[in-house]
Amino acid sequence: MNRSPACLAAVCFITALALLAGPGSPFAGQTSGRPGAPTVAGQEIPDWMARWELARVLSYAGRYEESVTEYSKLLREKPDLPKARIELAKVLFRQKKGAEALGVLEVVDVRQLDADSVLLMADLYRDRRSYERAAVLYREYLAKRPGDNPARLRFAEMLSWEKRYDESLAEYRKILAALPGDAQVRRKYAMVLMWSKRYGEAATELRRTLK
Amino acid sequence: MKVLTFIISITILALATTAAYRYLKQDWLLYRTAEDLSRKGSWQQAIPIADTLVRKGFRTKDTLRLLGRSYEGTGDLTMAIEAFKKLAAADPDDAGVELELAGLYDRQGDHAGAADIYHALLAKEPGNRAVALSLARALTALGRYDEAILRYRAILGEKP
After folding, report:
1. ipTM of the complex
2. Domain that holds residue A162
């Protein structure tokens, strides 16, 4: 035991204080819990983030041309932002620039697309008569949102243009199961029945729309 | 023997000091307890203690902050705002308090209330990008897009 008495005493004193320290002790820590600090206070805001938000707000304001400019600047700086790319495609679509919108979306990995973007891409392929690609995307979308009857109707119509009548009729039946009183859908259904030479069924369906 | 006596004396002194502290500084200890509960996320237990201390006027600013954050932790934004409003009144020069209050207004959906505070903060500190961004977001949430766009352009150092 070579320790000096003073050193030993100091150790004992500190140990006693440590034992006494606990919740409610004057020696307990002074940091307070913070359930929610201000989100941006004191943080550096990168320009690309502000530009992204600006691009969005410009699109909300209907200033699509400026929005596209800002999205383009953003994607030049940050090319790996699939979400921004999808948003840009939607703005281009609103500008009725379907081909450009599709060009932007085709760069994005399909697995990163949300349901709305999948539908947008399906519609764009349909408009460009790329029916095979559109069909794959419509099926993917409708698996996620089976209750979207307007989308299913576009899919059913597209299948009928491709003379895939059985598949088309199956989609129409799903729509009519949900909307049995929709005469317009039933008439379209009857048309497809006629194209597939099922005249008797077509006549029955058409009669139902006249009641 | 002398060493042992010295050690025992020092230990007794430490215990006696702490016991006396606990007896004489009960409010302080309650504050620490509430703070500790809040840090652990036991906000419901922290609230009545902090509330009692506020009523007693103990360390008003710290205790109001603790009370506000505890209410915020429970999701009771209305009561959290009340506490932070009192805190802002008690310490009008603390921009951090104003910013927290504005953040609470935003979370409650009162973007107009938040925007007013952000405007006032920016008037004091025009170059604060964080506050400018918060204001732009609040204006966007209010549907005041053109004003928000001007704010974003200013943040990016661009002319409108």
Report:
1. 0.75
2. 147-211
